[in-house]
DNA sequence: TGACTATACATCGATGACGATGTACTGCGG
DNA sequence: CCGCAGTACATCGTCATCGATGTATAGTCA
């Protein structure tokens, strides 16, 4: 799996897991999810759909155009559904470390059955955040914001520290609630919500 | 400029602006800067160096191997130095919105001469963060963390909100100090620090 | 009617990033 | 002396992404 190969495909699989959609609607949802940070070109989406279809992960059904041109309704196959679960349960390391990827994964983690498997993924992120890492070093030693005289580099460390603190807090409380049975999150969405249209 | 084309090249230009380096050392510095989030493959770095050389932005000077194999000392040309400044002053929109890109830009923003040009870049980020944007919507309306019942999606919004708050605070104080003359940051590094070797 | 916008999908060429693999030299431990 | 790790650079084929461009339909406003 190429480093970049995952993010878009994961989003496609994730959204289609919730409901069958056509490409244009899919694009709008992906744009809403991550578009403000990184827009997705149409010329990236349609080939990606084709790729997933070729791999047998989704099926296409022609429909006469309700609003305009004819649509291809996209539905996940059984293998597609299994593939999403697999990608959620065993993410690449870069999907743990890169915040963009990690957020995309989080957006669909509810579709991973069983609270302990969800918790295991959160624990991987927790382990990553617990490692002492900086953007700037004095030899081996990570530098703290206070030790820099560059205000912009100070900013990087200040912001990263605040993000990390907020995320660690959220991770710990969420892990606690996942570990106490009964209150854990179940997937109440997938295949139930068929209100694809606006 | 392709969406991905900037990040690595900016880092190369940025580090070489500070001191001439050879590829291997460059790689170690880039890995220290962003490697914990997104590792850089050697097979990506060397072609990138070649690209920049071909574009006349850097020059290569052969040196007998100090530690091992012979090195290519890399130095920014005058055009290379100008190009870094240009990329810092007029970043693509995705370099403002994508945190990875933004951090890379911030790491070298000190090399942009004149405090008001630095401030103008920070203001672009400020404007982006001030726009009400979410990852999840009810039609047009951005949803708040409290409105979601998915704990993972709640996490995304919680973390993003904390990051945004910390960054806004830092942006505002830094902008204030850039606007009050005398206390503004000058570039005290570029071309002065020639201690490239460990 | 004609211009324009939104919907909906598609292809093409260019290119940057990737993993795999190769080369070659130095220094160290066993 | 041999193997291994670290240093240092390079190429190759694959592939995901991109911008540009094209096609077609439906609805809106002048």
Any overview of this molecule?
The structure is a homodimer. In chain A, the strands form 2 sheets. A 3-stranded antiparallel sheet of chain A has the order 1-3-2. In chain A, strands 4-5 form a two-stranded antiparallel ribbon. In chain A, helix 1 (about 5-20) packs across helix 4 (about 80-90) and helix 1 runs parallel beside helix 6 (about 100-110). Helix content of chain A is about 55%, strand content about 10%. Chain A has about 200 residues and is mainly α. The first copy, chain A, is globular. Chain A is built from 8 helices and 5 strands; from the N terminus they run αβααββααααββα. In chain A, a hairpin with a 2-residue loop joins strand 4 (about 135-140) and strand 5. The first copy, chain A, has helices spanning about 5-20, 25-35, 40-55, 80-90, 95, 100-110, 115-130, 150-180; strands spanning about 20, 60-65, 70-75, 135-140, 140. At the A-B interface, helix 2, helix 6 and helix 8 of A face helix 2, helix 6 and helix 8 of B. Chain A binds a DNA duplex (30 and 30 nucleotides) through helix 2 and helix 3.
């Amino acid at each position: 799996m190429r480093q970049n190969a995952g993010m878009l495909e994961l989003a496609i699989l994730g959204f289609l897991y919730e409901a069958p959609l056509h490409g244009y609607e899919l694009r709008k949802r992906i744009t809403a999810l991550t578009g403000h940070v990184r827009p997705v070109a149409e010329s990236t989406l349609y080939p990606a759909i084709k790729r997933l279809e070729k791999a047998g992960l989704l099926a296409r059904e022609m429909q006469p155009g309700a609003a305009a041109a004819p649509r291809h309704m996209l539905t996940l196959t059984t293998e597609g559904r299994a593939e999403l679960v697999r990608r959620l349960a065993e993410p690449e390391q870069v999907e743990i470390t890169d915040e963009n990827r990690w957020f995309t994964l989080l957006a669909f983690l509810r579709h991973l059955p069983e609270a302990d498997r969800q918790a295991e993924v959160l624990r991987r992120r927790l382990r990553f955040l617990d490692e002492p890492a900086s953007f700037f070093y004095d030899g081996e030693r990570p530098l703290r914001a206070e030790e820099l005289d560059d205000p912009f580099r100070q900013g990087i460390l200040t912001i990263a520290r605040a993000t990390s603190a907020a995320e660690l807090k959220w991770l710990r409380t969420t892990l606690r609630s996942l570990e106490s049975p009964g209150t854990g999150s179940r997937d109440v969405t997938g295949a139930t919500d068929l209100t694809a249209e606006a």
